[in-house]
């Protein structure tokens, strides 16, 4: 039975927490927005609005363990009227050297993995709505995690899925060792139950049913940060081996990577270069990548005028011969968590839909007032 160790630990921990007395507190936060956009194809085509409420409940128990429950209410938006929907629920128990997490939280491999550029064989499952049970522990210089999926992103329990074995799916393991000048990361995820994997993929394309493992080594030499990584998809018999180097030159940081791909469908390797400049009010990033047989480039810049006003502009292209997408925008800090956004973005071929540029602007003209509480 796959879940004996982790599930037993969870039962004991939660039972202990329920029996302990401690000091509790509840905090609230949230955000609200009201905007107008004039694009009918991928934009909002008129007024749009939304408001979320974030709730965090925390208690320090007599044994020193901190119990926390956090979740989000989608209070209102322009598509659901006045409906209230709970989202992002996470229940945790944490001590100085260990933690237990349940809910919409990351898988173990996802938590630890660090790639070396765009590696096609390192698509470890990324949680997005699944209910995950994960345990973390720190022993000396090693941080380790183990996790299982309890339900998919559509809320279907593993135990309710045809063909499922036990009540958990896809064991995931990750560990990071800090060795001073070096760091070593090792991760593994088992192949998911076929029926549960199919259900999960319906609601979350980032849930990967394959058996996979990865090894990543990072080091710092003379100011340069170097990462060498290997990932293997055992189910599809594909692997990626990559190296990435980042080096600062005053206000400029240059990053290059190269990934050798052993792919059943394509033998094209991936590579890319990024140059980022940041000095005072000016920030500029230029990036070029050849990933999965596609040329991609983007240029983004911002200028902090002062008095709360920031100007932004950029352009990008993901396929040779396609029209370049571009945007210009301005944000004004109104104080107290309020901000005004005015933007114009153009995407003639529709390849970016409603996420143009690094800040994912809507196509067309947008005016939005947002509040963070």
Structure description:
Mean pLDDT is 87; it is low at 1-21. Strand 14 and strand 15 (282-291) form a beta hairpin. It is built from 3 helices and 20 strands. The protein is mainly beta. The protein has helices at 4-19, 108-112, 194-203, and strands at 22-37, 46-61, 66-77, 85-94, 98-103, 131-139, 142-151, 169-179, 182-189, 212-221, 224-233, 238-249, 252-262, 270-279, 282-291, 294-306, 309-317, 325-335, 338-346, 364-372. The longest helix has 16 residues, at 4-19. It has a 20-stranded antiparallel β-barrel. Helices cover 8% and strands 57% of the residues.
Can you tag this structure with a few keywords?
373 residues, 3 helices, disordered N terminus
What is the structure about, briefly put?
The protein has helices at residues 4-19, 108-112, 194-203; strands at 22-37, 46-61, 66-77, 85-94, 98-103, 131-139, 142-151, 169-179, 182-189, 212-221, 224-233, 238-249, 252-262, 270-279, 282-291, 294-306, 309-317, 325-335, 338-346, 364-372.
């Amino acid at each position: 039975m796959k879940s004996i160790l982790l599930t037993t630990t969870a039962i004991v921990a939660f039972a202990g927490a329920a029996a302990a007395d401690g000091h509790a507190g509840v905090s609230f936060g949230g955000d609200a927005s009201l905007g107008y956009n004039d694009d009918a194809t991928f934009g909002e085509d008129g007024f749009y609005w939304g408001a979320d409420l974030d709730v965090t409940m925390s208690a320090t128990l007599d044994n020193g363990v901190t119990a926390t429950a956090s979740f989000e209410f989608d209070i209102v938006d322009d598509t659901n009227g006045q409906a209230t929907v709970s989202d992002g629920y996470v229940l945790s128990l944490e001590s100085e050297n260990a933690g237990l997490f349940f809910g919409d939280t990351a898988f173990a491999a996802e938590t630890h993995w660090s790639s070396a550029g765009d590696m096609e064989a390192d698509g470890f499952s990324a949680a997005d709505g699944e209910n995950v049970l994960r345990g973390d522990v720190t022993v000396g210089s090693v941080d380790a995690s183990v996790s299982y999926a309890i339900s998919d992103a559509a809320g279907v329990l593993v135990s309710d899925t045809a063909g499922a074995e036990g009540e958990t799916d896809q064991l995931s393991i990750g560990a990071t060792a800090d060795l001073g000048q070096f760091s070593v990361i090792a991760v593994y995820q088992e192949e998911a139950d076929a029926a549960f994997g199919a259900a999960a993929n319906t609601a979350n394309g980032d849930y990967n049913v394959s058996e996979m493992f990865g090894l990543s080594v990072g080091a710092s030499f003379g100011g340069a940060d170097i990462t060498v990584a290997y990932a293997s998809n055992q189910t599809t018999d594909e692997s990626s081996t990559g190296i990435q180097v980042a080096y600062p030159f005053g206000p400029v940081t240059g990053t290059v990577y190269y990934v050798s791909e052993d792919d059943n469908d394509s033998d094209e390797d991936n590579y890319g270069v990024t140059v980022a400049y940041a000095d005072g009010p000016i920030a500029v990033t230029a990036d070029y990548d050849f990933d999965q047989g596609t040329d991609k480039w983007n240029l983004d810049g911002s200028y902090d005028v002062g008095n709360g006003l920031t100007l932004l502009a950029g352009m990008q292209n993901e396929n040779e011969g396609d029209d370049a997408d571009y945007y210009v925008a301005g944000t004004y800090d109104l104080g107290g968590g309020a901000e005004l956004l005015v933007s114009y973005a153009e995407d003639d071929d529709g390849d970016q839909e409603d996420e143009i540029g690094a800040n994912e602007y809507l196509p067309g003209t947008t005016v939005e007032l947002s509040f963070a509480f």
